[in-house]
Amino acid sequence: MKDIQRQDLEIISRHSNIDKPGIAKIFTDEIYNTRETWQHFLRLFYITLGIGFTVSGIIFFFAYNWADLNKFVKIGLTELLIVATTCVVLFAKLSKTIRNIILTGAAALVGALFAVYGQIYQTGANAYDFFLGWTVFIALWVFISGFAPLWLLFLLLVNTTFYFYSQQVAKDWSPVFICTVLFLLNASAVIAAVLVSKFKKDVEVPKWFLNIVSLAAITFATIGMVLGISIPDSPSFPFLIGMVVIIYALGIWYSWTEKAVFYFAVIPFSIIIIISAIMLKNSLDEGTILLLGIFIIVSITLVIKNLLTLQKKWKNEK
């Protein structure tokens, strides 16, 4: 049996002669998580929680004892922790998943090291070069680890670096251009991850990673389109329109071929927001607002109805 659900078992039990022990066995084999599954989940959960609390404790330790610590002690302790965690990753006989979790904690400690250095020498902890240095120095770990949470941290740092650069250095960049670059950056990451998962079978790209990065890309695209509609004569707006059309079409095509409902949900909602912005741009009278309300209610209802239909259809095809 594949992808059997509770509802399927209820139908089977009503219209077949399978007895209760047989139904209970199917529940145990196909529905319920086994003891080993729970143990594996709890082991990874507690390890992740422990490393997260450890990194948080280190940061709070420096924050609370900042005035009493020598600057060499501050930097030395952080470097020692990074070296120690990296040695554990390299030499300890642990599973690959646990090593990657520890490596993610070490990547967070790299940020703590740059923050400590920035506070000591007043380089500016919120400057773009702080995030740039953090990004560059964990890049090798990101590329060799093949670990989705570390990829997500890296993408977050890249986005943050670019945003602070646009705010602190390239102050003449328009908001539409910034959103365009962020949209293309995250969309390229999604496309690259999909291609890697297709052509490199040993690399597993989880769906949650694709969904989070795709949601970020679509969010930047939607914001950029709304700003482009409201800001006249933006030079990068026509380019953004073209890229949105192409990448949204690719997203719908990928969603149809892979039977992924997620893109059929977020892309139409983004289009609804963009059309609503166009309607508000043209007029703000009572009639337009009433028409806009009707359009939003009808369009969202149609999107949800089509999503339910597709989900039911694809579920039966599996």
TrEMBL record:
<feature type="transmembrane region" description="Helical">
    <location>
        <begin position="287"/>
        <end position="308"/>
    </location>
</feature>
<feature type="transmembrane region" description="Helical">
    <location>
        <begin position="44"/>
        <end position="66"/>
    </location>
</feature>
<protein>
    <submittedName>
        <fullName>Predicted membrane protein</fullName>
    </submittedName>
</protein>
<feature type="transmembrane region" description="Helical">
    <location>
        <begin position="208"/>
        <end position="231"/>
    </location>
</feature>
<feature type="transmembrane region" description="Helical">
    <location>
        <begin position="173"/>
        <end position="196"/>
    </location>
</feature>
<feature type="transmembrane region" description="Helical">
    <location>
        <begin position="261"/>
        <end position="281"/>
    </location>
</feature>
<feature type="transmembrane region" description="Helical">
    <location>
        <begin position="126"/>
        <end position="143"/>
    </location>
</feature>
<feature type="transmembrane region" description="Helical">
    <location>
        <begin position="101"/>
        <end position="120"/>
    </location>
</feature>
<keyword id="KW-1133">Transmembrane helix</keyword>
<keyword id="KW-0472">Membrane</keyword>
<feature type="transmembrane region" description="Helical">
    <location>
        <begin position="237"/>
        <end position="254"/>
    </location>
</feature>
<dbReference type="Pfam" id="PF09925">
    <property type="entry name" value="DUF2157"/>
</dbReference>
<feature type="domain" description="DUF2157">
    <location>
        <begin position="44"/>
        <end position="151"/>
    </location>
</feature>
<keyword id="KW-0812">Transmembrane</keyword>
<dbReference type="InterPro" id="IPR018677">
    <property type="entry name" value="DUF2157"/>
</dbReference>
